[in-house]
Amino acid sequence: MKVIGISGSPRKKGNTEFLVQLALNEMKKEGIDTELISLADKIVNPCNACMACEKHKNQCAIPDDFESIFLRMREADGLILGTPVYFGSATPNIKSFMDRAGFVCRRGENFLYRKPGAPVVAARRAGQNFTLAELTFFFLAVGMIVVPGSPYWTFAIGRDIGDVEKDLEGVESISNLGRNMAWLLRKINP
Description:
This protein is of the alpha/beta class. It has helices at residues 15-29, 52-55, 66-75, 92-107, 128-141, 168-188, and strands at residues 2-7, 33-38, 78-84, 116-123, 145-146, 155-157.
């Protein structure tokens, strides 16, 4: 089994990447193969509604880094999407990725259907609930199974790089999310 974690932060090695990796590390402990992909050094342009994905099933016509990530995600058994909060919302990086993946999946085979998906958010002070909802709505729109986190929502508070590590409740929520995803993967892929 394999889970792909995508950090939608434009900052490499920042809080979002730390949180996504934290969840992936919990899955590694359970023997699940993981891969972290950062969008920080990738170009993923927004969907331009060209509808080429209706004609060319399972692929996007926009030439950038999307397709290579999309193909790796296709082979995975689960998906974590992470983003920092930018002005009360997800970053344009992860939003462009979700929009394009959603269009291609819904006009093709929708290989994400019934795979586990989990949202992870890094926030300075506010906006995390709306941003968690954005990521969760993507999972629901493509028919994924949303993995529950606990003891609280799957976000951590922090502004500067490394600050989220001090949010002990956030760290525990994200760690538990990783354990829950490993558990769920074993239940649906015995």
